[in-house]
Amino acid sequence: MPSPLIDTVATLLAGIAADVVMPRFRQLAASDVSEKSPGEIVTVVDRAVEAALIPALTALRSGSRVVGEEGVSENPDLLHGLDRGEVWVVDPIDGTTNFVHGREDFGIMVALLRDGEALMSWIQFPVNGGIAVAEHGSGAYWNGARLQLSERDAARPQALRGVVKTGFMPEPMRSRIDARAQRHVADRIPGTQSACGDYLSYARGESDLGLYWRMLPWDHAPGSLLLTEAGGHVARHDGSPYQVAMPGTGLLVARSHAVWQQAQRELLQP
């Protein structure tokens, strides 16, 4: 039985989506958008959502703290201690570029960690009001319906279909994986340009895999719990376990362990 906290946070996110996010969707002024680092944009809505979530989430769990994308961009030291105590990891607007350009693939992502392990996660989609939630040991759900990848989903596909992100990889690794993907990934899809949309696609069995280089906790902690609770597999490129608090690079996610092994062999092994 999922914890009552699942519904409490889901209601909180729905309210923030309605009150803070949607009134500004397709209504942003040029001055509402800025570049926080080369190639990384932020809006007044990202900051407003995170500011609203910090007191609301910490009030739900005594002694907890929030580590949000925008807070870390201002103070990277906030990332220290992700493996100690209860920590809310927050991406206030995942898919900011989509949001800025009026595209609907964006969401609010939250995960609750305890000593570095993800206990629960939420992915709220403001435009359609949908929500994906997961709790360790209690399953994954999309709008209240259980997400459970089937035996068909677990089977190795004849040819892989999925998201292969190489933009942040160093050379010659990027060129090598791009070449392998051209041979082995029959349908290399661009994805939704948002971690929230991509992880929901994996958990629903609509895509086989996602290959990533950067492992920012707000991008992967919520979705990785959703996918693993649905029956998928998440691990580092070398097969070692994914741990939210562990620094480093290289993550491979797949709709099953068998598909993960196929993708790892065809894309990553020497």
From TrEMBL:
What SUPFAM superfamilies does the annotation carry? Carbohydrate phosphatase
Is Hydrolase a UniProt keyword of this protein? yes
Extract the Pfam families matched here: Inositol_P
Report the PROSITE patterns cross-referenced here: IMP_1 (PS00629)
Q: Where are the transmembrane segments?
A: none
GO MF, any single term: metal ion binding
Q: Which residues does Mg(2+) 2 bind?
A: I93
List ligand-binding residues for Mg(2+) 1.
E69, D91, D94, D219
Q: Which UniProt keywords apply?
A: Hydrolase, Magnesium, Metal-binding
Q: Could you tell me the Gene Ontology terms of the biological process aspect for this record?
A: inositol metabolic process; signal transduction
Cofactor(s) this protein cannot do without = Mg(2+)
Matching entries from InterPro entries are given as:
Inositol_monoP_metal-BS (IPR020583), Inositol_monophosphatase-like (IPR000760)
Q: Does the keyword Metal-binding apply?
A: yes
Q: Which family does it belong to?
A: Belongs to the inositol monophosphatase superfamily.
User: Could you identify this protein by its name?
Assistant: Fructose-1,6-bisphosphatase
> Which organism encodes this protein?
Hydrocarboniphaga daqingensis
